[in-house]
TrEMBL record:
<dbReference type="GO" id="GO:0006629">
    <property type="term" value="P:lipid metabolic process"/>
</dbReference>
<dbReference type="GO" id="GO:0008081">
    <property type="term" value="F:phosphoric diester hydrolase activity"/>
</dbReference>
<dbReference type="InterPro" id="IPR030395">
    <property type="entry name" value="GP_PDE_dom"/>
</dbReference>
<feature type="domain" description="GP-PDE">
    <location>
        <begin position="59"/>
        <end position="325"/>
    </location>
</feature>
<dbReference type="Pfam" id="PF03009">
    <property type="entry name" value="GDPD"/>
</dbReference>
<dbReference type="InterPro" id="IPR017946">
    <property type="entry name" value="PLC-like_Pdiesterase_TIM-brl"/>
</dbReference>
<protein>
    <submittedName>
        <fullName>Glycerophosphodiester phosphodiesterase</fullName>
    </submittedName>
</protein>
C-alpha cells in the first residue's frame, strides 16, 4: 500500500512538473516571433502642457496647476496635434464633446470654466460660439500670478470634423468623455459616412454605454471601454496560459497599466504576438490603473518597460519620448 501511494505521488508530481513546464514554455519568449519594430507612440491630447497628477480628481482644474511651460502648445488643438505628429507620434488622442448644433467639439473638461473664458458646458453652445472662446485663458503655473497663454487660444478649439479633415491620413484615438449612449449613436452616425480606409485609422474609447451603442451600429470600428477591457482580460487571465485568445479580445484596443501588464500570460513578447494575431492593439499606460492619464513621459519611465516591448506607449510628452526611439520626423 505504501509503495502504491509513493508511485501515485510520483506520478502526480511528474504530471505537475510537465504542466508547469508547458505553461512556462508556452508563455515564454522562446516561442515568440521576434519583431524588430519599435513601439507605437500615442500622444495624449497632442503635445500639451503637463501637470502634477497628485490629488487630481474628476473636478480638478488642471489648467491651474501646470508646470512651467516648456513649449507653446495647448491640448486638443490642431497646432498641438501637428507638433505631436512632427515629433514622431503614430497616434494622437483627443477628447470630444457634443455641441448645441449637433457637432463634436474637441475639448476635454466637463465645463468651460476652468480652461477658457466661457462658462457652462460645451453642449450649451454652437461650434461657432465655442470658436470665440480663449482655450488658453485659465492656464497658470504660479497660482494665478501670471497666465502665459491668456489671449493666445482664441479660436483654437476645433471641431472633430476639422481635425479629421486637417489630418486626412493620420491615426487618432477619439475619447467620448461621457457615459451617455446618445453620444455613441451620434458619433456612429458621423463615422458611418467615412470610407473604410479612414475608419481603420480611428479608434474610439470612453464610457461603457456610448461605446456599446457605437459598436452595435459600427462593429468594424476598434473600440475600448472598461467593459470591453474586463470582458477581454478576465477570461484571458483565467485561460490565457493555454494560448487561447477569447473572441472578446479580437479587433479591439487594450489600455494596460504597467503594474498589471507583467501578470498577463506571456507578457511582453508572447502576449504581443497573440494580440497581433487577434488584430488587437496594446497600449501601456503608467501606474496601476487608478489614473489612465498617467503616461511614460521621461527616459526613466521608458526604462521600466521590457527592452523587447513593441506594443503601444501612452505619453503626455511625445517631444521627450519620440527621440528615445529616433522617431523625430
Amino acid at each position: 500500500m505504501n509503495k502504491y501511494k509513493k508511485k501515485s505521488k510520483r506520478k502526480w508530481f511528474l504530471i505537475f512538473l510537465v504542466f508547469v513546464a508547458f505553461v512556462y514554455v508556452n508563455n515564454s519568449s522562446l516561442l515568440a516571433t521576434p519583431k524588430n519594430d519599435s513601439p507605437i507612440l500615442l500622444a495624449h491630447r497632442g503635445l500639451a502642457q503637463t501637470f502634477s497628477l497628485e490629488g487630481v480628481e474628476n473636478d480638478t482644474c488642471t489648467a491651474q496647476r501646470i508646470y512651467e511651460p516648456e513649449h507653446p502648445f495647448l491640448e486638443n488643438t490642431i497646432p498641438s496635434m501637428e507638433a505631436a505628429f512632427q515629433a514622431g507620434a503614430d497616434i494622437v488622442e483627443f477628447d470630444i464633446k457634443p455641441t448645441k448644433d449637433g457637432q463634436f467639439a474637441v475639448f476635454h473638461d466637463w465645463t468651460l470654466d476652468c480652461r477658457t473664458n466661457g462658462q457652462g458646458m460645451a453642449k450649451d453652445y454652437t461650434m461657432a460660439e465655442l470658436k470665440e472662446l480663449d482655450v488658453g485663458y485659465g492656464y497658470t503655473a504660479d497660482q494665478g500670478k501670471t497666465y502665459p497663454f491668456r489671449g493666445k487660444g482664441v479660436g483654437l478649439m476645433p471641431s472633430m470634423d476639422e481635425v479629421l479633415t486637417h489630418f486626412p491620413d493620420k491615426s487618432f484615438l477619439i475619447h467620448i468623455k461621457s457615459n451617455d449612449p446618445a453620444e455613441g449613436v451620434q458619433l456612429a452616425e458621423y463615422l458611418a459616412k467615412l470610407p473604410e480606409e479612414r475608419l481603420n485609422q480611428l479608434t474610439v474609447y470612453g464610457g461603457d454605454e456610448p461605446i456599446a451603442s457605437l459598436k452595435e451600429s459600427l462593429p468594424q470600428v476598434r473600440v475600448m471601454s472598461m467593459a470591453t477591457l474586463k470582458a477581454g482580460l478576465i477570461p484571458y487571465i483565467l485561460i490565457g496560459w493555454t494560448g487561447y485568445v477569447p473572441e472578446s479580445l479580437q479587433h479591439t484596443q487594450l489600455h494596460i497599466p504597467e503594474k498589471i501588464a507583467p501578470w498577463l500570460w506571456g507578457f511582453p513578447n508572447r502576449f504581443q504576438n497573440r494580440m497581433d494575431q487577434a488584430d488587437t492593439r496594446v497600449i501601456i499606460v503608467g501606474g496601476d490603473g487608478s489614473d489612465f492619464s498617467s503616461g511614460f513621459d521621461s527616459l526613466e519611465d521608458v526604462q521600466r518597460l521590457p527592452a523587447s516591448y513593441t506594443g503601444g506607449i501612452w505619453t503626455n510628452r511625445i517631444d521627450r519620448i519620440a527621440p528615445i526611439y529616433n522617431r523625430n520626423r
